[in-house]
Specification:
Strand order of the largest sheet: 5-4-3-6-7-8
Order of helices and strands: EEHEHHEHEHEHEHEH
Largest sheet: 6 strands, parallel
Strand content: 15-25%
Shape: globular
Structural class: alpha/beta
Length: about 210
């Protein structure tokens, strides 16, 4: 640990991953999202390992879920985003891709939350924008957020950057993250590594560290 002005400033994964002050964010492990991930089974298996380790260590765990509004309630930014993602010519052609009750919007069976965990629905890429997540984490004294799930290049990078801006210490468990575009995902990891405020780790290392703590 470094020290400055009476503060301790962590350097290592072990120093930031105190299970009592750590939250695990499981990002968008939904049926319809995972259909777009080439190595779906590997990502799910690695995510399950992380979730199991977090549960064993008493780490607070939150599952993120992307949902969409009825098109009649979508605003300009939502219509623009979904026009691009659905590759349609006009906003009039946009459909609501992830209604809350639709089959494709549900979390995959391998990653169902327990009664001690929660699901955070969102319509933005950052898990912190417009949700109660930041309030809940701060109320529990959380200082570090570890993120797994998919897609790394779409929602995980903005969530991690937002977490750092809010004063959290972000950890990305890279091999428990999926991507729709591997090249874009690598650019995201390179950018996070360059910025320097995110720790990048592996499933083996992360599970070992929280078990030891």
């Amino acid at each position: 640990m470094d020290e400055r002005n009476g503060l301790t400033v962590p350097r290592s994964l072990r120093e930031v991953c105190d299970p009592g002050r750590l939250a695990l964010l499981v990002y968008d492990m939904q049926v319809g999202v995972l259909r777009q991930i080439n190595d779906r089974d590997k990502v799910v298996a690695e995510a399950v390992r992380v979730v199991d380790a977090a549960r064993a260590a008493g780490v607070r765990t939150y599952f993120l879920r992307h949902t969409t509004l009825p098109v009649e309630l979508m605003g300009v930014s939502q219509l623009r985003m979904w026009r691009a993602w659905q590759q349609v010519e006009s906003a009039a052609d946009v459909v609501s891709a992830f209604p809350p009750d639709a089959a494709q919007s549900q979390l995959v069976p391998e990653l169902r939350p327990t009664e001690r965990e929660a699901v955070v629905d969102k319509i933005t890429m950052s898990a912190f924008e417009g949700t109660w997540l930041d309030i809940a984490l701060r109320d529990c004294g959380i200082t570090t957020v570890a993120v797994i799930g998919c897609a790394l290049e779409i929602g995980i990078e903005p969530t991690v950057r937002h977490a750092a801006d809010l004063g959290y210490m972000p950890v990305v468990v890279t091999d428990a993250c999926g991507a729709g575009n591997p090249q874009a995902a690598q650019r995201s990891l390179d950018a996070l590594r360059f910025a320097g405020d995110t720790l990048l780790t592996t499933v083996d290392e992360f599970c070992s560290v929280i078990a030891a703590r």
